[in-house]
Structure formats: structure tokens, C-alpha cells
Amino acid sequence: ILKATPDPLFELDRSGVFINVWARDASLFNHNLQALKGQSVFDVFEADSAQVIMNSLQEASFDEVSFGHCISVVLDQGKRWFELSVTCKQRSQASPTFIVLSRDITARKEIEDDLFSSQVHLRAEKNRLEAIFKSSNDGIHIVDENGYLVDANDKFLHMLGYDESIIGNLHVTDWDTEHNKDQVSAIIMEMLASGEPMLVETT
After folding, report:
1. H-helix or E-strand spanning residue 150
2. Residues 22-39: pLDDT tens digits?
3. Where are the alpha helices (DSSP H) in 39-83?
4. Per residue, what are the HEC states of 85-110?
5. Most exposed of 92, 127, 135, 138 (fewest Cβ within 10 Å)?
């Protein structure tokens, strides 16, 4: 059963020394599997990852199990990420041992990193557009589908002689004498239906 497990499986003592190692794919390690026996996790992994393993062992020694802690390992084929599941064997004895299942989550981690990068980019773009909106020398305003003002930059408010407190109460027809409410609604509905901007002159 152990040989059939697709993910690397270790048995460690409470000090983090390898007792047994099982891995169907030995290429997941830069070490000879048998040579790992007797070595400490601090000899095999980077300090941060080794400490995560030790914290997981300590957690399992109290709760019998530990889930969800992740480590990174730099291998010949690149950086890989593993999620640890730890169970404590012989917990009642003076020298308990721990079975550590390390599931390769590299693909999931890469997706999460890409998503995070996309979110950072979107936030930066949102901040850039907001800065343009606020600092523009042109009057810019946003209305809802009913034609009521929902946002405007300082230039637009200054042009009308209002401050931000008026937002939400003004309708396009309060400053546009060329169109009535029905015409404004028709223009907005046409823009929404086409998905294209329209040039509408007002006075």
C-alpha cells in the first residue's frame, strides 16, 4: 500500500530525523531515498521548510494529527510545493514517531500565484484609473441606469457649483436642458444595449 501511494511519505522521529521514506517517484527528490534515513529535516530541506515540518510534528504530538501546512522544495525540475498531513504514531510512548504525507500541490500553488498577480494588477489599474478620474481637468461624471448621478470628479462638481453631498440626488436633467427624463432614459438604454459609448452634447 505504501509503495502505491503517489505522494512522498516519511516517518520521522520527534526531533525530525528520517526513519523511513516511501516515494513512488524518486525524481521528486534531489537525494537518494535510502540516504535520507538518519538525516534531519534541517539537513535535507531549507530552514524555513524544515521549521514548518517541525511545527507540524509538534502540533500532531498534541492533537494526533496536523493538516494544511505547506513547504517549498527546490528540485532539479524546479520549485515544488507540498502540503503536509501528519499523524502521530505511538503517541503514548516516550519516543513517538510521525507519518508525514506530502502532497504535491505545485499546480494549485501556481494557479493561486497567478490569480494573486492578476488581482494585484487589477488593483493597480483601478488605482490608476481613479487617480485619472479625480485629477482630470475635464469634468467627468457617472450616472446610473435611471440617469441619477452616482459619482463625479471635483472638476465636474465645480462646473455645476456643487460639492460631493449632492451625489445621488442630481439627475442628468438637472444640468442638461436639451433632454427630458424620457430622452435620457432612452439614451442610457441604447448605450447599455449596444455596449458602445455614445457622444451626447449637453448645454
Report:
1. strand 149-152
2. 876 655 565 667 778 899
3. 41-44, 47-63
4. EEEEECCCCCCCEEEEEEEECHHHHH
5. 92
